[in-house]
């Protein structure tokens, strides 16, 4: 898999308000490095997922390894690089 600074996260609790979700994701993932943007939507097809765009590939890679299955709002997060 090619290195990528975007982390795709799914299995997120879709009952959480989108703005609250983005803020919480930023708090969790900022420990790994600078974040350019977090994309999360409330549309039916996009609920429960987010894209976290890091400034550096290493930050995305480290967060992927460290937080796989991390319980977030009572659901284990699933993550992959890119998309």
Automatic annotation (TrEMBL):
Keywords: RNA-binding. PROSITE patterns: RRM (PS50102). Pfam families: RRM_1. Residues 5-83 form the RRM domain. This is RRM domain-containing protein. It comes from Durusdinium trenchii.
């Amino acid at each position: 898999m090619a290195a990528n600074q975007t982390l795709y996260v799914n299995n997120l609790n879709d009952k959480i308000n989108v703005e609250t979700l983005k803020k919480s994701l930023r708090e969790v993932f900022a420990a790994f490095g600078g974040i350019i943007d977090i994309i999360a939507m409330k549309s039916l097809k996009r609920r429960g997922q987010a894209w976290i765009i890091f400034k550096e590939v290493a930050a995305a890679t480290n967060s992927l390894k460290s937080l796989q299955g991390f319980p977030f709002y009572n659901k284990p997060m699933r993550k992959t690089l890119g998309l």
